[in-house]
Amino acid sequence: MTLKKVRESGRRLPEIAAAFFRLGCVAFGGPAAHLALLEDEFVSRRGWIGRQRFLDLMGATNLIPGPNSTEMTMHLGYERAGPPGLFAAGLGFVLPSAMITAGLAWVYVHAGSLPAAESALAAIRPAVFVLILGAVWKLGRKAVSDWRLGVIAVGVGAAVVAGVGEIPALLLGGVCGGLALLLPRPSAIASALALALWSPATVLAASGEAPSLGKLGLFFFKVGCVLYGSGYVLIAFLEGGLVEQHGWVTHHELLDAIAIGQFTPGPVLTSATFLGYLVAGWTGAAVATAGIFLPGFGLVWVLNPLVRRLRESRTTAAFLDAVNASAVGLMAAVAIGLATASLNTVTACVFAGCAAVGLFVVRWPAVWVISGAGALGLLSMLVKQF
Is residue 182 very low, low, confident or very high in pLDDT (cuts 50, 70, 90)? Predict the structure, then answer.
């Protein structure tokens, strides 16, 4: 990197940190919603990268361990300002959720219960559903460029709805799609199948001794190294390690931690912050958070320059196109699953309609739509009380 580029990168860091910190404060709804927010803000509005590049990075991120949407923020920061931008974006996105979660952990320990915010969430969920639909439409128009990719996207989405795991479905879509578009090298097929069959359980083996900061950080670091798929896969790892193997927390505390991870904005992996606090206070919260997110920073740093090379190769480009179409199918499957949970009352449908008008007609930024939905939810609660 030349001196001029270094200076330009340094000037962009405050902008990057502020943009992702603001998004991290309102990023409700899980990975699919986060990706929709990122696409709206940095592709459609700011134009930091093109939609094809966004799709390529999204598809590649699905093939490495770690929180997909958080790693996408790192990719966007890298695109804007190189490795310093990667850290500014990733930290900016994670910090709001981690700080809120740590604060709620303190309240939980001292008050013995979780604060209720169901009214705000009841309005945010339909808005998130509309946001995801918009992202599926915009990204799908780019990723599904012919009927073969359309078949792949529909097939992967149907497989996930039928109960097939996200990663097996994604890999199957990538391999079969690559074969349909352009027969790849046998070694590429073998690598993909080996990844699908690899079990991370053996990597998580550890002794069930009393907690210490070193053991706590190592446990969450290992989880971050092998956590494929959405953040909800995290639950199985935590239950097997923290509850069954180590006995550091109870099943009830684990469920409360996952609830907090879903209640707060940002990545659900900040459940680790909550659990770290339960095990070892404020220091434990910091160590657990750093441990589970640190692998993602390293992986994205290595992966980002390679994605462009994948796109330039005719063979690997076919696989990447198929993975992109599969990723759109995954997002569509998430939207279908959210429909029943988000649009289950007349009020929820009204909130969804308001969000659709704000997003597609008035063309508000997605951040405004989510914030406005939360405010409407709180207002409706106050109206009911009086």
Answer: low
